[in-house]
Amino acid sequence: MNFKTSTYSISRAAGLAAALVGLAGIARADKLDYSNGFAGQNSLTLTQASPSGYTWQPVQSGALVLTEDPALRRNALPHLRSSAFSTKQLAIGKFSTMFRFRMSTTATHNLAYGITFCLQTSGPNALGGPGSGLGYGPDNNGGGLQSISKSVAVRFAVDNVASSKGVSLTGLLVNGASVDGGISLASSGIDFNSGNIYEASIDYDAVTLRVKVTDLKTSASSTRSYTVDVAKVVGGQTAHVGFTGGAGAFTAQQLIGAWKFDSSLVTPAVTQVAVSPSVVLGGDSAEGTVRLKEPVSTDTEVKLTTTTTTATVPTTVVVPAGSTTQTFPVTTTPVATTTTDSVTASVAGTSTKGSVTLSPVGVGSVQIDHANVSINYLPEGKSAVGTITLQAIAKAGPVTVTLTSAVPGVATVPSTVTVPQGAQTVDFPILTYHVDINTPSLITAVANGSRRTTTLTVRPLRVNSVDVTTTTLKGGAGSAASITLEAPAPTAGVTINLSSNYACLQLPASVFVPAGATTAQFRITTSAVTKSTLVLVTASSRTNNVYSKITVTP
Questions:
Q1: Residue 486 neighbours by CB under 8 Å, 6+ apart
Q2: What angle do CA 511, 513, 515 make, to 5 degrees?
Q3: What residues have CB less than 8 Å from 276, skipping those under 6 apart?
Q4: Cβ contacts of residue 380 below 8 Å, gap of 6+?
Q5: What is the rounded distance in angstroms from the CA atom of residue 235 to the CA atom of residue 271?
Q6: Is the Cα dihedral 59, 61, 64, 67 positive or negative?
Q7: What class has domain 363-459?
Q8: Torsion over CA of 120, 262, 154 and 237, rounded to 10 degrees?
Q9: DSSP state, residue 144
Q10: What is the pLDDT of residues 102-118, one digit of tens each?
Q11: How confident is the model at residue 297 (pLDDT cuts 50, 70, 90)?
Q12: What CATH superfamily classification does 463-553 receive?
């Protein structure tokens, strides 16, 4: 059978195959971009070896046609083979590529063989054998022993020679090696016989070639990695990049619908992982940020781990294409003691650590019972109730709070109080003592490194009232009287001064209120007057005066 070899540069197409084209994913693709199909492009060289009389149409409806099904093209014959490579050599030290493809047949025979994604330095029109050679290597069934040397390829093939139902295969090929055999994709649910559209994503970081193929209809996928030095195999840092396809006695229509190739990639490198705030109350949430050295050209997954279970992060976070940073949530649990947890971010063999410190619950506030205390002023000798409120409920266990008073001779507090587990507040007593002037004392509450203060000012005791049994006295008569304090007198008692503004009313110069008492009695006497006289009786403490009015009549 006579074969002819045809070479084309892509420059025309009838339209776009809507289901195959429209590839998205690589944000920066400055080498090759056929994401909207192959219509109108001219940077590829296409080569096909086909029987005489067969007219090859390399682009149909926007898709690249590597082989055709005889039932679709009546003048097509078996043993077709073709290649489509970049006309110029492209950098291949590091790269990322995505393409969509479909294998299908309408003939009575079974679908067989398939395609490769290939990087090679043999030339833009390099072409291997047909059939099981996939247009890359030798066809061991007699179709031809041609192969592409100095090359690295990934196969996507169907073997229908050994069984009536084809087995979908993948695998790495080097230097035009035989394509027979391979790795079965059956366990991953991948079946190229289905005629579904598949998307292949291949990334290379100068060490590892990662290949993922996904059935876009069923979402079944398979991911495999291969260690290979591509530059060493092909003999340089540049190569022709593209596809090969082959068919034998059993053939099919093999289409590439969309393709992107980017060799300007930077290997992702993580430089920082940070948590804000860096110190957080155990049980509260925080926000982490992972930072890469340079913007990434594809969505890049970064692995996250922590050293303990007190802080929890997602297992991975994705840095979007074109970005260097991404945030992630950090959840924490209550702790009984200060705990520092390390957060590690890893990608492409690089890693870095950050940390978050979890604090046990501390004092949120300390207050004095304002129902009994006016703006934190308290009369000497009067007691009050203080309240400790923690920053959060004491979930990790009881919390001991240390209390101090700056002037314990004026105001005293317990040395410690305990907030029970499950509670958030606790009360404590405050006792006050005698002062000569207003005297402030700073009350401090401390727990787990958290300190809160409030100021209590103790002032001298005030007299509330002075009372006379009758408000009208005839000159020469007398009456019982009393004074009342605002609070019980302190330990040493309190002396209250007395006076009147007219000599016709006589009373003691002072009255003593003993410790613990709030009142004291005294007696008033009067002298004869010639006219009614309004007299003021004054009771004076160290800080205030109160009055009572008495009328003395003739």
A1: 379, 461, 462, 463, 464
A2: 155
A3: 286, 287, 288, 289
A4: 432, 433, 434, 435, 458, 459, 460, 461, 487, 490
A5: 33
A6: negative
A7: mainly beta
A8: 30
A9: B
A10: 988 766 566 778 999 99
A11: low
A12: Immunoglobulins (2.60.40.10)
Q: Please give the structure tokens belonging to residue 14.
A: 């009838």
162 Cβ contact list (under 8 Å, min separation 6) = none
Q: Is 317 helix (H, G, I), strand (E, B) or coil?
A: strand
* 107 to 70, 76, 102, 162, 256: CA distances (angstroms): 7, 12, 16, 19, 20
Residue 187 CB coordination number (10 Å): 8
Cα distance between residue 219 and residue 242, in whole Å: 25
CA distances from 342 to 314, 336, 355, 363 (A): 14, 18, 4, 26
Find out whether 342 and 304 touch, Cβ atoms under 8 Å.
no
- The yes-or-no answer to whether 270-359 and 363-459 have a common fold is yes
User: How many Å apart are CA 107 and CA 234, to the nearest integer?
Assistant: 38
User: Do β-strands 151-159 and 425-432 pair in parallel, antiparallel, or remain unpaired?
Assistant: unpaired
Residue 546: strand, helix, or coil: strand
Separation of alpha carbons 388 and 399, rounded Å = 11
* 302-347 per-position pLDDT tens digit: 999 999 889 999 999 999 977 899 999 999 999 999 999 999 999 9
Tell me which of 3.30.420.10, 2.60.120.200, 3.50.50.60, 3.10.350.10 is the CATH number of domain 3-262.
Answer: 2.60.120.200
Q: Scanning the structure block, which residue is given the tokens 């209590």?
A: 456
CATH class of 270-359: mainly beta
- Domain positions in the chain: 3-262, 270-359, 363-459, 463-553
Between CA 402 and CA 421 the distance in angstroms is 17
Residue 18 has pLDDT above 60, yes or no: no
% helix / strand / coil in the chain, to the nearest 5?
A: 5, 50, 45
Q: Identify the bridge partners of residue 198 per DSSP, sorted by sequence position.
A: 101, 215
Q: What is the pLDDT of residues 201-257, one digit of tens each?
A: 999 988 899 999 999 999 999 999 999 999 999 998 889 999 999 887 766 789 999
How is residue 270 written in tokens?
Answer: 């993580």
For residue 155, give the 3-state DSSP assignment: strand
